[in-house]
């Protein structure tokens, strides 16, 4: 299983989601690959925002080695699930996927499995510093994602 987490700049939300997922799959002994990307290339080659790194560290996760990158066309082939942080990212991903059904079917809001049928965004903490809130929401949403996906795989 390969999962890609995606936000706008790949320095706040998606690195936190990647770190959380890596921790959760390691704890569960799952053989999954996780990566993150941004829909923009504004921060290509940069490390995560220092506030994201700090939030992850106080929760026992090290994301300081991650490097921001922009999503590529090959990501739609490589990854089984692509988790967007908000509807803007979701719409950008759908557009970048060329509206191909086999690619679009892989794209979900990160909160979809926690709040099915609702358009609940993971707020962007870059300007308002809500990193703890973002971490808590992602923690719950990604637990539900793992529970749902592992249940589907068992069937």
Structure explained in plain terms:
The chain has helices at 13-28, 50-57, 73-78, 87-96, 101-104, 131-154; strands spanning 2-7, 33-38, 81-84, 107-109. The two termini are 15 Å apart. It has a four-stranded parallel beta sheet, with helices on both faces. The chain has 155 residues and is of the alpha/beta class. It has one domain (2-154): Response regulator (Rossmann fold).
Write the layout of secondary structure elements.
Blueprint (H helix, E strand, L loop, with lengths): L1 E6 L5 H16 L4 E6 L11 H8 L15 H6 L2 E4 L2 H10 L4 H4 L2 E3 L21 H24 L1
Parallel strand pairs: 1-2, 1-3, 3-4
Helix pairs in contact: 1-2, 1-6
CATH superfamily: Response regulator
Helix tally equals: 6
CATH topology: Rossmann fold
What is the CATH class?
Answer: Alpha Beta
Low-confidence stretches: none
CATH architecture: 3-Layer(aba) Sandwich
The total number of structural domains is: 1
Give the termini separation.
Answer: 15 Å
| Proportion in β-strands | 5-15%
Largest sheet: 4 strands, parallel
Instruction: Record the strand order, biggest sheet.
Output: 2-1-3-4
Report the order of strands and helices.
EHEHHEHHEH
From the alpha-carbon coordinates, what is the Rg to the nearest angstrom?
Answer: 14 Å
Secondary structure class reads alpha/beta
Total beta strand runs: 4
**Overall shape:** globular
If you average the pLDDT, what whole number results? 96
């Amino acid at each position: 299983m390969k999962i890609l987490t995606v936000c706008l700049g790949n320095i706040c939300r998606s690195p936190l989601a990647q770190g959380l997922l890596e921790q959760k799959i390691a704890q569960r002994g799952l053989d999954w690959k996780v990566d993150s990307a941004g829909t923009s290339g504004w921060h290509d080659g940069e490390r995560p925002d220092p506030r994201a790194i700090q939030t992850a560290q106080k929760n026992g996760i090290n994301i300081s080695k991650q490097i921001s990158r922009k999503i590529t066309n090959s990501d739609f082939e490589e990854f089984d699930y692509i988790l967007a942080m908000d509807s803007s990212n979701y719409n950008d991903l759908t557009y970048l996927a060329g509206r191909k059904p086999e690619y679009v079917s892989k794209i979900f809001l990160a909160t979809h499995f926690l709040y099915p049928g609702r358009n609940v965004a993971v707020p962007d903490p870059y300007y308002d510093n809500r990193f703890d809130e973002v971490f808590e929401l992602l923690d719950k949403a990604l637990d539900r994602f793992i529970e749902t996906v592992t249940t589907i795989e068992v069937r």
